[in-house]
Automatic annotation (TrEMBL):
Stored InterPro entries: AhpC/TSA, PRX-like1, Thioredoxin-like_sf, Thioredoxin_domain
UniProt xrefs under PROSITE patterns: THIOREDOXIN_2
Record domain Thioredoxin: where: 8-160
Matching CDD domains: PRX_like1
Gene3D superfamilies from the UniProt entry: Glutaredoxin
The protein's name in its UniProt record: Thioredoxin family protein
Biological source species: Magnetospirillum sulfuroxidans
Domain of life: Bacteria
Length: 184
């Protein structure tokens, strides 16, 4: 079942984290933070919505990094129920798609809960002061990649954040697979 993200709560402060990366080192919010803003993405390996946009996501992240936006992806799914999202498979997924940003494992799911992440992909775009400016979609893609000339919603929003410190007032919610929460 597809889930949509809530609307942007402008100015909401990014919760800190310290998570293991697939590169073997721990990463905190301060370490991924960019001089002009930060993009924190909740993704996973198996979700068809993430798979449909992986190449575009990597392209946009790389370009945003060039504009001073720090980027990190976090995987928070229950890997017991969804072994395709395991740490080892995260390494393979990142290598296959050429990630230029840290891919972090939120095994406890506490970071996803702190961010109130609801789906994969779920994008949180912050200004230089770590205030939320964007909570929308990458582009018009769904389970299949959209047209090659689709408007780059996330990229345009975060470029605006890098240039002005503000995100767009009009934002279209991201849609994807629900976060796979562990049964308590």
């Amino acid at each position: 079942m597809a889930v949509e993200t809530p609307l942007c709560a402008f100015g909401w402060q990014a919760p800190d984290f310290n998570l293991p990366g697939i590169d073997g080192r721990p990463w905190s919010l301060q370490q991924v933070r960019g001089a002009k803003g930060s993009l924190i993405m909740f993704i996973c390996n198996h979700c068809p919505y993430v798979q449909a946009v992986a190449e575009r996501l990597v392209r946009d992240a790389r370009e945003l990094q060039g504009l001073g936006i720090g980027v990190a992806a976090i995987m928070s799914n229950d890997t017991t129920a969804y072994p395709e999202d395991s740490f080892d498979n995260m390494k393979l997924f990142a290598a296959r798609h050429g990630f230029s940003f840290p891919y972090l494992f939120d095994e406890s799911q506490q970071v996803a809960r702190a961010y109130d992440a609801v789906c994969t992909p779920d994008f949180f775009g912050f200004d230089a002061g770590l205030g939320l400016q964007y909570r929308g979609r990458l582009d018009a893609s769904g389970k299949q990649a959209g047209p090659a000339d689709a408007r780059r919603d996330l990229f345009e929003a975060m470029r605006g954040v890098a240039e002005t410190g503000s995100g767009p007032v009009e934002q279209v919610a991201s849609m994807g697979c629900s976060i796979k929460w562990r049964q308590l």
